[in-house]
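WARN  no MSA supplied for this record, continuing single-sequence
INFO  ligand: xanthosine-5'-monophosphate
INFO  echoing inputs
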Amino acid sequence: VKNKSAYTYDDVQLVPKYSEIASRKEVDLTSYITEDKKISLPFIASPMDTVCETMMSLMLSEKGGIGCIHRFMSIEAQTDMISTIKKINKNNMTMAAIGANGDFFERALELSNVGIDFILIDVAHGHHKNVKDALSVLKSRINIPIIAGNIATAKAGLDLVDWGSDCLRVGIGGGSLCSTRIQTGFGIPNISTIQNISEALDLNNIGIPIIADGGIRSSGDIAKALAAGADTVMLGSLLAGTYESPGDILKSGHKVYRGSASLATKTAHGQKERNIEGVSTKIKYKGTVSKIIDDLSDGLRSAFSYAGARNISQYHAKAEFVYVTNAGTQEAKPHLIE
Ligand code: XMP
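INFO  complex generated
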């Protein structure tokens, strides 16, 4: 057994660099979902049934990002959502999740018939024969960019690219509701995961973009994920509990946020109550997600300014981490002693 160290968001800080950025407006946050498809805000709403349906997707599009419609519904319901989003504004880019078995192919076909822009294979362990087989069928029969994951290693990244994936969804067990690492012991802290995969792609001159998924709690974490080599980030908890997230406001003033592999989600969708690898929680209702997205993008623009970067390629080139001690982590948080 080889042992290596691995780091996550709180273990690192970014090194401030000489900057000539006079205002946050000078920063261009445009990034890539696939090698030739751009978005102007690198945020993707997570395909979870308490995060992204029509309203969330529309709001993300309005801000320049994209929402990924979850797959815990009939094919008809999912395609209806995509059609609605397209109808409201024909320029809206759309993304939806499918599985890697069962009705996945029929679902992908129907989604492509209503003009979907990206299909995401939503699987907990993406470095798997099921995903390889699904990619082989999809790539040979449907001409839509495919995002595959989730993965945590360089080898998985290179294999998925080999199997035809147009974008990699990276991060295993790091989500705020994940219990995978407790349940199974598997997973790699997110900064190292992103760095390992990104470096492997670079070394092999592969330009396939990376989505950093799970564990992002602030614009600072987004800045760190992109600095580690991600092109976009996927957000769950930050967008949950809002007006645009699916679900009712409870009497207590909260909204439910539940893991896709939680008992609550499995029960709600009539799945077998086995292999529970997620939890369910309640989030204090936050109002519209619009302000949250604006605050996150403002924070990210500031981060680019600290890096002296006007755009994502300069940011990737200039970003540098230091690893911090526990004292450094404490210092990074408000810590005034009165
Ligand atoms: P955040 O931290 O943004 O994470 O709330 C969202 C991501 O968490 C993943 N996810 C899960 N992982 N069990 C898991 O191990 C689950 O039940 C579960 N549900 C969501 C997913 O990658 C999502 O984008």
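DSSP finds twelve helices and 14 strands in the chain.
INFO  checksum written, moving to next record
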